[in-house]
Design a protein that fits this description.
Blueprint (H helix, E strand, L loop, with lengths): L29 H25 L3 E8 L5 H8 L8 E5 L5 H4 L5 H4 L8 E5 L8 H4 L20 H20 L2 E9 L2 H13 L9 H7 L2 H15 L6 E5 L3 H16 L12 H5 L1 H9 L2
Parallel strand pairs: 1-3, 1-4, 2-3, 4-5
Helix pairs in contact: 1-10, 2-10
């Protein structure tokens, strides 16, 4: 089986999504991929326990990708061995009326993980430079000063948003949040097959919406917006990783391995030592309990 190396997926220079493969088999079979994932997610679960005990860092996992890219099932499989109190998943839909009364980062800021915990953003703050860029009319709903029509939304506006997002991520990274950003890179053909499965399998019908087909017609627009967002916001403290996602099993393992390999480099994340006085009296405490 091919060894997974974080650097092979990390964005460290300008990329063109058309030049990046959407399929990675890791030169092995489905059963091996699942077994490897079991091993890695168990280690991630153990790391989360240590992270909680240490209490100085948090971890934010951001998942972006076109419809059917596999975000939901990846979350289910990768975080299966976590203490349920140690990870919170946020699925960001269209902003509510309350959220629209605040700036676009507000709802993401209040969903950030507490120290010792993981948060997973299923769709993220990047929707504000992807979906809204494909559909700029959505920006009008934010009721921003000086934005009265789509014509007021210029390239300068989007560049400003990239800068704001970079500043947001830099701020939380400097305050102890470890950031992972994964783009699940899917081929148009594989999306077609997955949409067809939603229609053909009765138990999957509920996942399908006619809007999926409308958005699919905007495939090229979305790919361009994903590409520009990645190129403008992959930084040292918050790098993007592009994950080939035509194989769900391989994508899940790649994401899990990247997280574990990067997190174990934080050598200061250790369970705290007991005070010396308590350590000296452990046998006494044990005897008290045993002799009740």
């Amino acid at each position: 089986m091919k060894k997974i190396k974080s650097k092979d997926f990390r964005v460290s220079e300008k990329i063109n999504l058309k030049d990046i493969a959407t399929l990675e088999t890791l030169d092995t079979d489905e059963e091996t991929l699942k077994k490897e994932l079991e091993d890695t997610r168990e280690k991630l679960g153990e790391f989360q326990d240590t992270l909680y005990a240490h209490g100085k860092y948090s971890v934010l996992v951001c998942l972006q990708g076109i419809d059917t890219a596999g975000k939901d099932s990846l979350i289910r499989e990768v975080f299966k061995d976590f203490n349920s109190r140690g990870v919170v998943v946020h699925s960001f839909k269209s902003p509510t009326d309350l959220e629209k009364k605040h700036d676009y980062l507000w709802r993401h800021y209040i969903a950030l993980p507490a120290r010792g915990k993981f948060s997973v953003f299923n769709r993220t703050h990047y929707e504000n430079v992807i979906v809204t860029r494909v559909h700029p009319e959505y920006i009008l709903g934010e009721n921003l000063p000086h934005i009265n029509s789509v014509d007021d939304i210029t390239d300068e506006f989007w560049n400003q948003r990239f800068e704001q997002i970079n500043n947001f991520e830099k701020h939380i990274a400097q305050n102890g949040t470890i950031i992972f950003k994964f783009f699940l890179h899917l081929s148009k053909r594989e999306q077609k097959d997955r949409l067809l499965r939603r229609l053909e399998k009765r138990e999957k019908n509920w996942k399908f919406s006619p809007d999926d087909l409308k958005e699919r017609k905007l495939w090229d627009n979305y790919q361009q917006c994903f590409e520009e967002a990645i190129n403008n916001t992959s930084t040292e403290h918050a790098p993007w990783y592009i994950i080939p996602s035509d194989s769900k099993d391989a994508a899940r393992l790649i994401v899990a391995d990247i997280m574990y390999d990067e997190l174990k480099e934080y050598k200061d994340i250790q369970e705290p030592e007991l005070p010396e006085e308590i350590k000296r009296n452990l046998d006494d405490y044990k005897n008290q309990l045993e002799n009740e």
